[in-house]
Amino acid sequence: MTADIEQIEAHRAALTGHCYRMLGSAVDADDATQETIIRAWKNADQFGGRAALRTWLYRIATNVCLDALADRRRRSRPMENGPAGAPTDVLVQHPRTHWIEPMPDARAIPADADPSERAMLRQSIRLAFVASLQSLAPKQRAALLLVEVLDWSVAEVAETLGTSIASVNSALQRARATLAGRNWRATPSVLTESQRQMLNRYVAAFESYDVDRLAALLRDDATFSMPPYALWLQGPESVRAWLLGTGSGCRGSRLVSTAACGSPAFGQYKVDSDGGLKPFALVVLELSGDHIVGWNSFLDTETLFLKFGLPSHLPA
Questions:
Q1: CA dist 44 to 3, 32, 37, 156, Å?
Q2: 64 and 42: one domain?
Q3: CA-closest candidate to residue 261, choices 61, 74, 21, 28
Q4: Domain of 10: which CATH number?
Q5: What is the tens place of the pLDDT at every residue in 160-200?
Q6: Among 33, 154, 165, 257, which one is most buried in terms of CB atoms within 10 A?
Q7: How far apart are CA 8 and CA 108, in angstroms?
């Protein structure tokens, strides 16, 4: 029994989500998924049908990701690189490869997933969970994801990783200890009506640049970050001061709704001196109850807006 290219391609979104959880980057996940599909196509005659096609593809994808991680440093978020800064701090920039990147929901979640699977997959690509995964050694990361997200047996994981069941159990124990207290499954996967109304207030406040109303939507411990800059801020007053100071160039922006990392997101467009509005940031909001707890503005619009299918320019 062999697999044809259409059968393999049908699993692209699921594989992309898995590679994103492993690598923490939308760009790297797309590259790893493409490499997985190429390897699967070249070795299609080796698929004997003893396991499900998706399981066989996940095995290939996991090993592609482990190969990719062998010579790369882990990605992180600004909040993991040092203490919160001040609104007047000098901006220090790191390369794109330093940071966790957002992933479009549509690229990482299969369109044919049933509601319970879709909810679980949305939770498993949230920024905080993906960032915490990057703190694990690559094989620990793979073992945890295969067992906790894909519901594989320890024996299946051992076969995929080319190791023993005892080694997999040990890796799982260490991974779970490292992530203790981070119950990603506890995060609601569907917005409540009050959260939807709060997001409408966020958009209205941002587009009218009502900084006081924006600050009021933030929880007292909310974080604000702007990769590729290392600076991050904490608390409504720091964010308010930033928006009124260095960030005041965002006045007059427009937001276009999208979805990233299982969370509400927006393409932010700033006024273009040549007319209309130009891309400025991909904003991903993390929510808790009716407050924003994470405001993440990713400034690599050249890469991200294309992946999210966002316009390259907006009319005035």
A1: 5, 18, 10, 20
A2: yes
A3: 21
A4: 1.20.140.160
A5: 999 999 999 999 999 999 998 777 776 777 899 999 999 99
A6: 33
A7: 15
Do 162 and 288 fall into the same domain?
no
Same domain, 35 and 133: yes
Q: Tens digit of pLDDT for each residue in 124-134?
A: 999 999 999 99
Peptide bond into 279 cis (omega under 30): no
Distance CA 275, CA 33 (A): 38
Do 14 and 66 reside in the same domain of the chain? Answer: yes
Q: Are residues 180 and 255 in the same domain?
A: no
Same domain as 24, residue 164: yes
Q: Is residue 87 part of a domain?
A: no
Q: Which domain holds residue 170?
A: 5-75+108-186
Does this model's pTM top 0.85? My answer is yes
Give the DSSP H/E element, type plus range, for residue 40. helix 26-42
DSSP letters for 116-176: HHHHHHHHHT-HHHHHHHTTS-HHHHHHHIIIIIT---HHHHHHHHTS-HHHHHHHHHHHH
pLDDT digits (tens, 9 = 90+) for 280-314: 999 999 999 999 999 999 999 999 999 999 999 99
The 10 Å Cβ neighbour count of residue 312 is 11
Distance CA 135, CA 178 (A): 8
Residue 128: count of CB within 10 angstroms of its CB: 18
Residue at 228 is within a domain: yes
Q: How far apart are the first and last CA of the chain?
A: 57
